[in-house]
């Protein structure tokens, strides 16, 4: 029998593990249902990116948060044609925590964050320089040494894994 022709397209599903956005491109790390890791570096106008059912313009790519489901359509060269991402859900594996940053203490080795959530529950986190997580402040990703610039009183949104370890943190300046 003749060899089967390779399909022109491949649709795969996975979980968005990590998002990194800089001025030029969006980097996505995706783990598919077979535990294969995929990395995409996307530039403006390169492909269509959908988030929560809405096509996003490049200026809105900062809304994309890790932890949600992803569907990617690839052509036969394994180039992405489009990517559809759903926001992380409140599920047993992850917790989306929203609240107010009530206190922050910084020293050279660790940062302490005290957060009061929307149900007035207090959460305390100790972040070490070696921790692998994205922390953004007013939409700008911060390096560990820059965390001393964070002011208490602003809104916080973070994704916690099932062990309540932060995967990413977004903090806003107090209003």
Write a concise keyword list for the protein shown above.
2 domains; seven-stranded mixed β-sheet; OB fold (Dihydrolipoamide Acetyltransferase, E2P); single chain; mainly beta; 54% strand
What's the helix-strand series?
A: EEEEEEEEEEEEEE
Total domain count: 2
Query: Distance N terminus to C terminus?
Result: 69 Å
The CATH superfamily of the largest domain turns out to be: RNA polymerase II/Efflux pump adaptor protein, barrel-sandwich hybrid domain
Account of the 3D structure:
The protein is mainly beta and 175 residues long. The chain has two domains: 9-85, RNA polymerase II/Efflux pump adaptor protein, barrel-sandwich hybrid domain (OB fold (Dihydrolipoamide Acetyltransferase, E2P)), CATH 2.40.50.100; 94-171, OB fold (Dihydrolipoamide Acetyltransferase, E2P), CATH 2.40.50. It has strands at 9-21, 25-32, 37-43, 48-51, 54-55, 69-75, 80-85, 94-106, 110-117, 122-128, 134-137, 140-141, 155-161, 166-171.
Secondary-structure blueprint of this entry?
Layout lengths: L8 E13 L3 E8 L4 E7 L4 E4 L2 E2 L13 E7 L4 E6 L8 E13 L3 E8 L4 E7 L5 E4 L2 E2 L13 E7 L4 E6 L4
Parallel strand pairs: 4-7, 11-14
Antiparallel strand pairs: 1-2, 1-6, 2-3, 4-5, 6-7, 8-9, 8-13, 9-10, 11-12, 13-14
């Amino acid at each position: 029998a003749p060899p089967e022709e390779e399909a022109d397209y491949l649709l795969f599903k996975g979980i968005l593990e990590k998002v990194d956005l800089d001025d030029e491109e969006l980097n996505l790390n995706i783990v598919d249902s077979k535990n294969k890791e995929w990395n995409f570096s996307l530039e403006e106008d390169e492909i269509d990116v959908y988030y929560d059912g809405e096509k996003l313009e490049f200026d809105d790519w900062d809304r994309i948060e890790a932890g949600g489901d992803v569907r990617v359509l690839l052509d036969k060269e394994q180039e992405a044609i489009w990517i559809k991402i759903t926001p992380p859900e409140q599920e047993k594996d992850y917790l989306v925590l929203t609240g107010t940053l009530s206190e922050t203490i910084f020293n050279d080795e660790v940062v302490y964050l005290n957060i009061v959530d929307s149900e007035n529950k207090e959460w305390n986190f100790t972040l070490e320089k070696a921790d692998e997580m994205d922390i953004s402040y007013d939409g700008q990703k911060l390096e560990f040494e820059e965390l001393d610039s964070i002011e208490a009183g602003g809104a916080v949104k973070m994704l916690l894994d099932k062990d309540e370890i932060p995967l990413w943190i977004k903090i806003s300046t107090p209003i």
